[in-house]
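CORE FACILITY INTAKE
Project code: CF-77B
Contact: R.S. (postdoc)
Sample description: multi-component assembly, four entities in total
Requested service: structural model of the whole complex
Turnaround: standard
Below are the sequence entries exactly as provided by the requester. Do not edit them.
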Amino acid sequence: MQKVAFVGLGSIGRPMARRIAAAGFPLTVWNRTRERATAFAGEHKARAATTAAEAASGADVVVTCLSTSLDVSDVLDAGLLDGIGAGSILLDCTSGDPATSRQIAERLAAKQVGFVDAPVSGGVRGAEEGTLTVMCGGDAKDLDRVRPVIEAFGKKIVHCGPVGAGDAVKAMNQALLALTIWGTGEALVALAKSGVSAQVALEVINASSGRSNASMNLFPERVLTRAFPRTFRLALLDKDARIAAQIARDERVPAPLTQLAADLCTLARQELGEDADHVEAVKVIEKWAGAEIR
Amino acid sequence: MQKVAFVGLGSIGRPMARRIAAAGFPLTVWNRTRERATAFAGEHKARAATTAAEAASGADVVVTCLSTSLDVSDVLDAGLLDGIGAGSILLDCTSGDPATSRQIAERLAAKQVGFVDAPVSGGVRGAEEGTLTVMCGGDAKDLDRVRPVIEAFGKKIVHCGPVGAGDAVKAMNQALLALTIWGTGEALVALAKSGVSAQVALEVINASSGRSNASMNLFPERVLTRAFPRTFRLALLDKDARIAAQIARDERVPAPLTQLAADLCTLARQELGEDADHVEAVKVIEKWAGAEIR
Amino acid sequence: MQKVAFVGLGSIGRPMARRIAAAGFPLTVWNRTRERATAFAGEHKARAATTAAEAASGADVVVTCLSTSLDVSDVLDAGLLDGIGAGSILLDCTSGDPATSRQIAERLAAKQVGFVDAPVSGGVRGAEEGTLTVMCGGDAKDLDRVRPVIEAFGKKIVHCGPVGAGDAVKAMNQALLALTIWGTGEALVALAKSGVSAQVALEVINASSGRSNASMNLFPERVLTRAFPRTFRLALLDKDARIAAQIARDERVPAPLTQLAADLCTLARQELGEDADHVEAVKVIEKWAGAEIR
Amino acid sequence: MQKVAFVGLGSIGRPMARRIAAAGFPLTVWNRTRERATAFAGEHKARAATTAAEAASGADVVVTCLSTSLDVSDVLDAGLLDGIGAGSILLDCTSGDPATSRQIAERLAAKQVGFVDAPVSGGVRGAEEGTLTVMCGGDAKDLDRVRPVIEAFGKKIVHCGPVGAGDAVKAMNQALLALTIWGTGEALVALAKSGVSAQVALEVINASSGRSNASMNLFPERVLTRAFPRTFRLALLDKDARIAAQIARDERVPAPLTQLAADLCTLARQELGEDADHVEAVKVIEKWAGAEIR
């Protein structure tokens, strides 16, 4: 079985690594905050490395799951690039940006190391249950080699295109998530001020053509209940939506809704702080309108 | 059984009227183009009236199903208001605007005539099968009185609030439809230029958080196939989205995405013409980007 | 000389009325807060009326200078319509909206009273010095009759078109004001974060093609100094920009920048409060960016 | 006197080079289309080089005036980097982007070559008359060294900040130009449809707070006359506005108007073609509205 190194034991990374260990892959983990790696190694069949380079040394597949592509670059610069061996593959599950992923792939290629960008969708629960959707960019051959590792945590594995394609699809999905959250929020706040309850409005919309994952799941579960559980940070949605806006700009596609959604995420993040959940963005609309979605 | 008059035998109105006749309501129909009314009366158990006033005379419930609230006002001015009797109710299934509906309701109230705005969702097929969603605004008592008529063509009947509330919910649903069509179009065009096929992108998005009715149904069936069937005119979506934008503006809800979606519909309508289907709006993005969704 | 009634002694109305009195027109004034009218009558050659109807009674020209067209409608309803005599003219210097102005003109026409919408530009100082720009909508004959009164406070008097045309031009000017304030703010905040001082940037911009009244006058005098004097309320700019957005929507002109500028004014007003000056809107951009224009 | 090499004899570059020659600097010119360089050398006191490297060889100051920063990179790659000598300075008058300029500056620094980004404003006439505004980014010492050369064609020379600052200020000026052209266009088209002539509207706006260089100069001279002279290509304004949008995005400044202006330029360029003048962008608004600015 392939030897695997896992770098980045965050809220999604940890359950992914757990499933890799449970699937029987010899696993070494590394995390910037060392205690996390040690704790993980204590609980699962895995070894904690002191440095990212040490984790990568001897691994056939190095999995990274960090916040941004720049974080991946930084870890590479901080030693990972030296530790990773020729013939191995970097499987980057970060929700990254295509341009930086392409630069990383070039740097790795010079060392005979492959690269697959493979951001995931499905949240903490999907990671725990091994039902993540994994959108992959890179050579088909490289993807085939890392597929057994991906299968430990992913259910739907889609080859989207060349390096960066996985990042691009993920970013666009997130921009659509931002667009539907914010758009549904605008609609429900305006209706609330018109005297229509959000519950009634959603009952209609969710039986009609304007429905989306946001209107069918997020609003009933999180907004109408005012629960706003913190499952995915607005700061990360902002990052993703900005990547989507950047792709559209780079590809010379006039995309005014995508651009606007990205700016709305950025300002909502500034308004609500780094810890806010992505669905809390609707609170900004509520504040602007002086009315609550009810 | 209540005597029903039906005004407006368009593509949705005709099957609605047919179901009312089939349910056994004594029915008189009127249409601006008289041949349509005569033909309808020839095929179904209904009488064709020469004027809207004549149709309304003696009816307990007058159903209108026209393009805009202004059309309803015009028909009222052109005689309907004189023909309609005290104690009857106008059930307006037009996708109207709340402000004009409220004005119409006031004028009718002065003649002891009730008013319920009741725009529908579900398309021609929903009308034919009697499975329309009907969003109603007005007094609960008035709604109860017309409910048997609505049940002839509607399955999900939702009381949204006071007069205009049905229009408002319908308009907001349509704005969300416009937003998701256009937003998904932006994403898929940008991805196409990045080398990601639309089919692959939709496979991922439709298993992820950015999915919507547009991405799950409209794009696979109509855009990827390049079929673009003409089922609902862009001109009408433009009208609806403009009503939504107007409501947000009137209610002082900053709603930049809704406003932008309305403008995009207006310009796409100008670009593509009065006969274009609403989903064809994505062709404008394709033209701007010099690339096709594939 | 024509007898004049003046309704609305706000910050602009007062100096306008003062100049009318100084020009020798027999003047009666009325204000909702009665003390203002009494004080005015005490200081100038004018009579204070107890009601708007009383002020209008016997006047050849009734000047209104209120916040919104709805305020004008309200004052008409509250008695002014009864007091105003056949053959007289209502000269409405409110920054109004064309649709309401047209309705008011119709109501007055039924009583043989003329109507000219005549919003002004030039601020308190322009009013005091009689150098206001006055943009007029209505019949040329009606305008000719009120021109002597306008000349008491206006320098540049422009006949823009039929009733509502004055309102429309004023609103569009204000939307452009909002657009240039906000757009220049975006540019200077982004440059500040790039390490370019606002003073240097304005030195260049004001010698280049991107310059505007905002960049040449408002930013150097009010933003760079952080003085932000309160000369014209953001709440009024919001109202004006909303009228402009409404006109574009009604005329079916896709105007995404105008629509967005209106929403930005509305949200900035909610953020900064009813007393904020219009130029303070840039503080919202600064907050969103976490940086100050310096 | 410093020996100067000039690379890029386009419509702005040619008159700039002419003034440098006229000021007595020993000058070598190079242009991709060789005939231009030969023709220039035949008419002015200058030598035509066969390659960019040859032009740069022995020069104290190498001036580049190309379309984009990527063009500058390409010319560097194609030999200029080899030809340019240690101790010399690259004075880049391209309207470039800060990120690429910073990369270029780094590459040059490794060869002991200085870099100053120095985009210009003022058009062909400004270049011919030596009255350009020049916005400079880089070390003050480097700027001092190239100042004599800049003075040959520039009148107002502003040190904006570090490398890239000149590009940034230029881009933001252009974004404001795009914003005011498009915004004024929206206003005038909406007014035209309301029955207000553009000439009357501009008479008022240009005496009021919404005025800008666009409303005061471009619209009266180019739009009302329907002359639309081709002085500055829309394709270049699009490029500049996109740089501005990019800077705002990179600096995390929510700048929805700037982002929208950039997308409007991109789509107008696609609609009108590569040769269209920047002011012709208003024709897109006219098409969308079905009305002309008159």
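Facility notes:
- The two ends of chain D are 54 Å apart (CA to CA).
- Chain D touches chain C through 71 residues (CB under 8 Å).
Invoice: internal transfer
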